[in-house]
Amino acid sequence: MSTELANGKPASTPEETRSWSRKAWDVIDERMGISALAYPVPEHANRIAWTLGGITVLSFVLLIGSGIILTQFYAPRPALANLSVRAIEANDWGRLFRGVHFWASQAMYVATVLHLVRVFLTGSYKRPREGNWLVGVAMFGLLTFAVFTGTVLKWDQEAYEALGHNLELGKLLGGVGFWFSPGFSSGVSILLRLYGAHVVIIPGMILVLVFLHFLLVKRHHMSPHPALPVGASPDQAPDSEPTQPFTRHIRRLVAFGVALSGLLGILAILLPAPIGSPPVAGIEITLPPWMFWWPFTLENWFGLAAIVWGEVVFFLLLAILPFVDRNPNRLWRRRPVAMTIAAVLALALIVLTILMAVTPAQTHL
Ligand code: HEM
Questions:
Q1: How many domains is the chain built from?
Q2: 102 lines ligand 1 (CB under 6 A)
Q3: pLDDT recorded at residue 326
Q4: Which ligand 1 atom is the nearest neighbour of the CA of 132?
């Protein structure tokens, strides 16, 4: 629709010459203020690396949509959970939506990590964006919980072993881990409580934080491209950089959304989401989802508590980054200390992950 707007205002056309679609658009826009989204953003914000946060949101939207459908057929009771997932899998549409949900979770995780890496490489966490970095770290933590709770819901061997770890870790955490113990609530099973966390508490918290994240991006504007000359204000794109309306960014994201939905649909058909047989107590034969492989290698070496310490140290390192890195440069070449530490950490995570992939499952509980 041709609503390209100068200075965020609709170009005025005489009433009689306007097409019906233009009239309809004007009616909607007058009420919803959509054209206000046409504010200028620096040209570099349309590059793929700067669109990864938006792709994360798209994956989240697909997760919520497919998740709402799955909740209609999933039974969150230990006796029925595995059976209900098998029944979903036995139906063509059920298999498709469960597959999309599974692959959207992988896409959101990968997009979040790539987005975090982009924000790190372009020094976008530096003043005044430290608060927004912390909001991002919190969302990453919640996403990790979402993957974990989702794994438990299918109530197969992998789920049962994940829950076993969870219960033991809850004990290790003492008072803090009390919520994770089966004794926390006598009338509601831990499966049902983890289900509540997975479908309401965690996505609800992520939604609130996404809203805050966006408000802060709008407030601080997109961070400058580190390779461009610094303008009058070092934390803003220079005036010399061309701008484009934000609506163009949104249009690109909608196109990405269509492509992502198609890709996830194809993956769901070709590589259906895994489901194992009902669990057997007292054995450990499965591997956790790949996002947890690095802390599980630590567990193989140092015992169960190493999972908690590994994750706590990882998230603490992320959280303190903007406050300990006082180098004002944003270009990666001028930040040798931060780059070296990040490269060592990334290498360690990759090596620990590969080690888990090539090590047979071990008994820990
Ligand atoms: C988990 C869900 C997340 C969503 C949905 C999300 C979404 C977004 C979006 C849409 C932007 C605008 C720029 C862009 O797309 O690159 C953005 C910027 C930003 N994000 Fe995220 N993000 C998430 C996680 C994170 C994480 C894990 C971090 C870091 C730990 C982070 C830190 C930031 C910062 C500092 C900015 C401002 C960067 C700039 O102005 O260049 N975000 N985020």
A1: 1
A2: no
A3: 95
A4: 35
